[in-house]
Amino acid sequence: MPTLGRTDIIDDVAEKSGYTKKDVQSILNGLLATILMRVIHGGDIVSLQGFGRFWMADVAARQGRDPRTGDAIDLPARRRIRFAAAKPIRDELARPR
After folding, report:
1. Cα 85 from chain centroid (whole Å)
2. pLDDT digits (tens, 9 = 90+) for 20-46
3. What is the Cα gyration radius of the chain?
4. From CA 60, how far away is CA 93, in angstroms rounded?
């Protein structure tokens, strides 16, 4: 399955919307920057109806394994961005193929 990159998304949206690629790129960059700033720095939950929600979650420190040696290693606590798909996307994924 091919990977769809930022340029591919910009091309598709520009073609379907009639906007220029430069305008679509500017909108996409602004959208992603806003989501990241609000979630990472503001601690907000960003919800895009019909698409999903983004939020920050704390991951507790835990013990893991070094895949090369099998030795136990301590993994520090960290923060990560989480995403949950909205119901229309979950329903589409659950549909039999």
Report:
1. 10
2. 999 999 999 999 999 999 999 999 999
3. 19
4. 30
